Amino acid sequence: LGAEGIEVQFMAGTRSSLAMVATGTEAPRIMSADFVLARRDFARVEALMAAYDYAAARAVADDLKDRLKRHSAVPSIFRARVNHACDFLAILDLWDRFDFEKAFNRASQALTLGGPERSASFQKQLFKPLQRLAEQGKEQATWDLCADLWLNAQRCAARGRHDDAVARLYRLTEAALQAQLWETYKQPNPVPWDNVPDEIRKHKPKTESTLNGKKYCGVGLGLEGSIHFLRFLNKEDSLIQNMSEGLGTRGSPVWIGGRNNSILAHGFQKLDKTDWNRASNWIIKHLRQAWSDVEPPQLPYRLHF
Fold first, then answer.
1. What would the pLDDT profile of 1-36 be if each residue is shown by its tens digit?
2. Residue 142 pLDDT greater than 80, yes or no
3. CA 141 from centroid of its chain's CA atoms
4. What 8-state DSSP symbol labels residue 253?
C-alpha cells in the first residue's frame, strides 16, 4: 500500500436493508491507493509547515496534487483543500526566500480570483506588509525589510538553524542602521563620497552606484562604518542611543564576536541556541522598537482550512 500507483479493491454490493447484501450483487470495486494515502501525505505537509519548512511542505503538496489528478474517485472537498494548500505554500515559500515580488504577484492573483473564507486572515494581516516589501524595490534598506529579516531569523531558529538565524541578525543590525540613515537623514547606501568624513572614507574604496536612475560615486558602509557615520551625523540619534549600552569595546554589538567566528562568517565555530538567544535578546532590547510599528504577525505555521 505504500507504493505509488497500487490499486486497492473492495467488495461492494446492493442492499435493501442493513441486514445483508443482495445475493449475486457482490462485485469488486477499485479505489486508488494514492487517495487512501492522501491523508497521510497531507499530514506530512502540515507537519513541515509547522516547522516553517515551507519549501519542503510545498514540494510534498505539489506532488500530492499531481498524483490526485490521475484519479477521479477523489472527493472534491479534499481535492480543493490540496489545491488551496499548494497555492498558499507557494506564496509562503517565495516570501521566506525574500522573493517578495513573486510572492506578492501570487497573492494578488489569489485575491483577484477570489479565495475561500479561510484566506481572510492572510488578506487582513499579511497582504499589505507583503505589498510594501514588493513595492519598496531593492535599492535601500527600510523598516519593513528589517521587520521581515527579524521574523525570518526567528523561523530559522525555530528549525534549529542557528547559524543561519544569527547570520540574518547580523544583516538585520546592519540594515537597521542603513534604514535609519535613509529614512531619517536621506543618506543612501552607498553613501555619497563627499558626505562621508575623511576618517571613514580613507579606509574605504570609491564605488559607483545608482539612486533613482542617477549614477553617483559613493562609499559602502557596513555595520561598524554605519555606526560611526550615524554618530558623525548626530550624536543624539535615537538608534545610536538605544544601541549604545549594548556595544562592546570595539564599538560593535557584544554578540558579534561569536558571529564572526562562525562558519558562515570568518571562522569554523558552529553556533547553537545559546548564541541565538544572546543575539536575539540584544536585538529585542536595543533595536526592535525601531521597526515595531510596521512589524506584521509571524508567517503562519498552520493551514487554517
1. 455 555 666 777 787 777 777 787 877 776 656 666
2. yes
3. 17
4. B
8-state DSSP, 141? -
3-state secondary structure of 281: helix
Give the length of the chain.
Answer: 305
Task: Take residue 40 and report the three cell numbers written for it.
Answer: 497521510
The Cα 220–Cα 233 span in angstroms is 16
Rounded Cα distance, 46 and 51, in Å: 9
Cα–chain center distance at 19? 57
Q: What are the beta bridge partners of residue 191?
A: 219
How far is the C-alpha of 170 from the C-alpha of 280, rounded, in Å?
10
Q: Is the peptide bond before 190 cis (omega within 30 degrees of 0)?
A: yes
